[in-house]
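To whoever is covering the structure queue this week,

Two jobs came back overnight. Logging them here so there's a record in the thread.

Job A:
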Amino acid sequence: MSSVTFSEETARDTMESSRRDVMHCEKEIQSIKDSLKLLNPGAGAHSDEDSLNALKVTVNKVRFNGEEPPKDVESPPTFKVHLSSPIEVRTITKLHDPLDPSAEGSFALFKSVEISNALLTVEAFSSADASDGTKLGVSAAHDLLPLFEDLESSTGADTNNSSTLEIAIVSENRDLIIADLRNSKDDDESKASRGGDEGDKGGDYERTEDEEPRNEEGFETSEEKSTAATGTDRGDNEGSETNDGNPEPAADRNDSGQDKSVGDDERCEGLKGEADVVATEETNPGQNMSDAPKEESKVQIPVCVLSVHLEYTPSLNDKRDALYNKLNEVSKRKAAAIEALRKSAAAVNRARAEQGMTSDNVEKSTAVKSGFLKKSKASGSGEKNTPPPLLKRVYEKTFGPQSMLWVVGPIAKNYVVFFAVSVFFHFKGDLLALPPPV
């Protein structure tokens, strides 16, 4: 009995939950239909631009090493935004200004974008004119489909989907562009002053002995630095010789007998290696470090990181298609909820039937029935066979509800009235005659 009750309660809970799901789906379907009515071309005047989607790209911030750019660092002034579908290029010459969001050159606008196939790539240049400037780096291709795949919230004509994306600009030739940006202004000033000195000397500029030679990255070269480090002692120890008789400067070796130039080369290589970060491949949690692969992958430090804001405005067709897709999904959910409601109702009825059959079996199996102590009256005996009193019988025959007077009286009344009127017309009909005309 308890198991039957438990199953019935479970079926009732399932039925109530299914009923709530059906009601929720009904409300959602009604809201989608209202949104479709708003998107109906007959609901209002729509221009040709509303039939095309649009993608607006703006650069909000430029960060170096995860921080704001220092005062002595000049941010890249020009960015080229490449889109693969359609294949178009837009140029951004200034960062986004919240006070003037529609300023010229602060955003890139694309029309008729295929979100399912579009890839976004950003290039950074060192000058306002991209044709004259140096290309600092390029970003990876970013897929736009995961960003704007959910169009279910597009229920109005003015609904826009926005997303902020962090895009890393990486140098293609692995140069230290951050150092070049930091020293760009100083280099220009030094070149200007150096050009004046060269003009006064009347010849090519020559490096002085105190000036340290540097490579393209701005670091000292290993050869010149090692020479500078050992040149002072080399003249004092020209006559010294080793035990084998070979002349060798004593200052070129340290206490352990290692050549100092080798150490200088290693230190210089360490300085140049600051541009690349050596990342060891991750091993499994249960794997020993000795079993880890010895191969190393180099991860390049980005020149800068751009905070790019993407604002996508879907077209009317995109909104309508998204709403229809959502309507189909909600309709499927409603059908599933109705099916669950039907099954739960059938389970409740089945539980009730089982409970009724169980109670009938219990009643039939009872040995003692209710009312077994009452004596049954014999047939032909009792108060029902006793005749009523005489006066009551006379009353019932003469004036009672079932007497002849009350049964025949209403019928005989009609005949009496008919014959009385006929006799009156026959004998006294002249009383009803009209007087003759005068």
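Job B:
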Amino acid sequence: LQGWLAIPGERFRLAAALGFRSRDIARHLERPMLREVLPGAFLVIFLLCLTSFAVALALGGGPRATTIELAIYQAFRLDFDLGKAALLALVQVVLGGVVALIALRVALPAGFGAGLDRSVARWDADGRGAKVLDTALITAATLFLILPILSIAVDGLGRVASLPLIVWTSALRSIGVALTSIVITFALALPIAAFAVHRRSRLVEGLGTLTIVASPLVIGTGLFIVINPIADPFALALPVTALVNATMSLPFALRALIPALGQVEADYGRLADSLAMTGRARLRRLWLPRLTRPLGFTAGLTGALSLGDLGVIALFASPDSPTLPLQIFRLMTAYRMEDAAGASLVLLALSLGVFWLFDQGGRVNADA
């Protein structure tokens, strides 16, 4: 979606003036954009599947449904075989690294140039065939997402008002962790994106993307071993969780920020250099106004992912200080399914609310 939004509206106006049809727009505008963004999107989806943990854990994860992530968890928590866990983590990193290198080599810049941030008018979407196809695809995706949510709503809606106090305190704890993760993500992503753009280094982008390959459970285990001799790991559960969540969100932030920042520098970088605009002035007057959309999207996505995380906190949290996802898992293991459904509705509302709030805030266009 960010790729389509990144195509300047003036390109579509020019296409209309030239009498382009849908296939012409796909060839000259959409395919170059997809050639730039699809490899990164494929990489993120692949790595998310590779590091899948919560669903497999919640459903039981038998021998035929064990992901690498769940095998690492079982090796640590059940067998306490750190050698096996490390070997599985290495396999995961190598596999993800190979796919990341392939994706980065395939991606090519679209090179659309600058625009005036005008809204995009797609006259070619008025045809009946396009509307029928769009409606069918959107309906299928909506049903896939909405049916599980409806089942949760039916079981849990009546339990929301009577949820135990620990669910609400866990929700507040999760919100605090999510907001902290957003701040840390920006503090990490902006300097890395700036370095990658100025150095034109695909390697930096690749290294940033590889952070998602490192299992949160492996990182949490390593941090537990490091912290335990000098401090109480359980007392640092929330800061460590926020830090790891921010690190796991870094690939999404870089995929959104690096292309956008590269375009800003290509369009206005020389002008900013001629005005001696560097440091904070460049950040405040050039980058932030032109990056509001990807920054808002990144903040919303980071917050939503952090709210739903069930990785590091499973290792660090004490019984009295769980986050909301961990509390939901505890309710499920105690067979309090109606309470778990009600708490899941709260988590869903918080995740959607955080994403909508930041994403809408980022849709403010920069001053021309």
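Note for Job B: Residues 2-137+161-361 form a domain with the MetI-like fold fold (CATH 1.10.3720.10).

Please reply-all if you pick these up so we don't duplicate work.
Q.
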